[in-house]
From TrEMBL:
<dbReference type="InterPro" id="IPR001387">
    <property type="entry name" value="Cro/C1-type_HTH"/>
</dbReference>
<dbReference type="InterPro" id="IPR010982">
    <property type="entry name" value="Lambda_DNA-bd_dom_sf"/>
</dbReference>
<feature type="domain" description="HTH cro/C1-type">
    <location>
        <begin position="5"/>
        <end position="58"/>
    </location>
</feature>
<dbReference type="GO" id="GO:0003677">
    <property type="term" value="F:DNA binding"/>
</dbReference>
<protein>
    <recommendedName>
        <fullName>HTH cro/C1-type domain-containing protein</fullName>
    </recommendedName>
</protein>
<dbReference type="Pfam" id="PF01381">
    <property type="entry name" value="HTH_3"/>
</dbReference>
Length: 90
């Protein structure tokens, strides 16, 4: 089972307020996010971007292919950014 979010943040020495701000929550509501498997992909990506913690670690994937998942998500983020920039130009 994946570690709970608070334990992961503690391991990385990241304050819960960083995640709360990224999600637009008050810090006291962070314990609702302890089981990352129950969160949407969008929320986990926001947490990953805000903290620098790999998506795979947040959801507790343990596999030799984990780097491929993280690479895919980084590439996806670049594609989304490019699409957004194109839309803003038009």
């Amino acid at each position: 089972m994946a570690d709970i979010l608070r334990d992961i943040l503690k391991k990385h020495k990241i304050q819960q307020s960083v995640v709360a701000k990224a999600l637009g929550l008050q810090r006291v509501n962070i314990n609702r996010y302890d089981n990352m498997i129950e969160r949407s992909v969008k929320e986990v990506i926001l947490i990953s971007k805000a903290t620098g913690i790999p998506f795979s670690e947040l959801i507790g994937i343990d596999s030799k292919d984990i780097k491929n998942v993280d690479r895919f998500l980084k590439k996806l983020g670049k594609v989304e950014k490019s699409i957004n920039e194109e839309q803003n130009e038009n």
